[in-house]
Amino acid sequence: MLRRFFTYYRPYKKLFILDFTCAVVAGLLELGFPVAVNHFVDELLPGKNWTLILWASAALLGVYLLNTVLNYIVTYWGHMLGVNIETNMRKKMFDHLQKLSFRFYDNHKTGHLMSRISNDLDNIGEVAHHGPEDLFIAGMTLVGSFLLMLGINWKLAVLTFLIVPILVWAALYFNGKMTKTYRGLFSALADFNARVEENIGGIRVVQAFANEEHEKALFEENNGEYRQTKLRAYKIMAGSLSVNYMLMRLVSLFVMVCGTWFVIRGELSYGEFIGFLLLANVFIRPIEKINAIIESYPKGIAGFKRYLEIMDTAPDVADAPEAVDAGWLKGDIAFDRVTFGYDDGPPVVNDISLRIRAGETIAFVGPSGAGKTTLCSLLPRFYEPTAGRISIDGQDIRSMTLASLRRNIGIVQQDVYLFSGTIRDNIAYGKLGADEEEIWAAARRAQLEDFILAQPEGMATVIGERGVKLSGGQKQRLAIARMFLKNPPILILDEATSALDTETELAIQQSLAELAEGRTTLVIAHRLATIKNADRIVVVTAEGISEQGRHQELVTAGGHYSRLYEAQFGSLQNV
Ligand code: ADP
Ligand code: MG
Prior knowledge:
The chain has helices at residues 2-7, 13-47, 50-99, 102-106, 110-152, 154-161, 164-201, 203-208, 212-264, 270-311, 372-378, 402-407, 423-428, 436-445, 449-454, 472-486, 502-516, 551-557, 560-569, and strands at 333-340, 349-356, 361-365, 387-392, 395-396, 409-413, 490-494, 520-524, 536-541, 544-549. With 575 residues, the chain is an alpha/beta fold. It has a 6-stranded mixed β-sheet, sandwiched between helices. A 4-stranded antiparallel β-sheet has the order 2-1-4-5, covered by helices on one side. This is ABC transporter ATP-binding protein.
């Protein structure tokens, strides 16, 4: 996994080298100070030569300045490295999310995914910068200071070295605990985000049902869970900080006592004693670093694991390697013994064979849950059939690129999804980059012109999140305008007017009829009056297609359709 992590550094090699080099040089300078002090006390001080002392001080000042600059570079450019890696990962994740299929989104919560792309990646960025650098510097400082201490007095150095196993043990102990806790923390945060996302997204339903108390209780559960895990993390952090503090003081104290003894015995000069004390401080500094690593590394790794979970999910609907651009299709559709079921469930679409000629309008009727919507969603390959094959103009749809296939198919559904933004933005979504004239033409054909002109802001009117500021009919007209602009040869109208009142429905039927002109149209409707004029009506039941034909044929046949029709209109007269 670490190797995969490092592949993300590749585009930023130069930045990494710059940051790393500066950090190493700064680390070496840090090691040099105690040595300098040692010589200052032992050699310059007894000579009492002020000029020399001033020169030495000036040289030290220079080194300090250099170190300041290096620290600036490490902090700023180093973080830039982290931020770049994080941004790149975020981009890759977003790109990947665009490719994942309906099945994936059926099974994942929006809030969870948002948590991954925002919070998890933040932590990865932090580690990407600090991780390798801190580890290396820690190692370098540890070894370097030890060698220097050996140079001053090997006995004292070896004695000091004895505490290293304790340091390593403490680091490993706390690190392991932290990784686990952070994984818990992130999934708690994701649950928490998902809860808020669902609540706010559905706040109108919550208030309509007056279920605020219920929602509050659910939220409190997640909030409490998050608090618990967070507290657990802080508890471990507090433990690790305190233990490290104690260890560091112990080392200082130990060196002080032993050093004094060596000085008294005449084995250590004052300068060496001071230098050694300072070096001992540098020596244990990695504990501090390791502390920081204990804080950030497990966070980053936990985040990276969650990141990989998404990145390693292959889209179950994707372009075949040899897929070609479908170009502009005529819209001659053939379902050939198509079977499909959701998530290994029983088949929802059962061995359906159906031919729809270009330009034909075909209507699907049947009980709710019979699989009409599902059947239509196989055509743009939102889901992949488990058996059988679908072709358009004689070509298997799997041989076309997804983008080119979907360019040829337009869908108008019952619940229109609009984006927050202006009316213009939402119409233009049907054809990005459409000019003003085309947008107005589409609006006109969807009979939306008067409405837009009546708005103080016209086309620039903001319609609110998901179009909340529009009526159902207006939303549907916007969706139709969007489709006029997209102008696909194949059209799917899935209960497009079912949510509307009768009067609006009648008005919108006209626009839909105009939209359907010259296209292969698949209509799903439960109000039979709206589909009487279809070229063919197909009755779909859980067992498959039970009958098909023109309206009048089916009514006379006296089968399923005639019973449905009778139920809706009470008699077999034409209404
Ligand atoms: P219709 O449009 O004819 O009313 P659908 O195609 O919407 O029927 O649904 C057919 C069946 O598939 C239903 O039993 C429904 O519960 C199930 N179903 C629909 N969508 C999904 C989904 N995304 N995941 C799992 N099952 C689904
Ligand atoms: Mg449906």
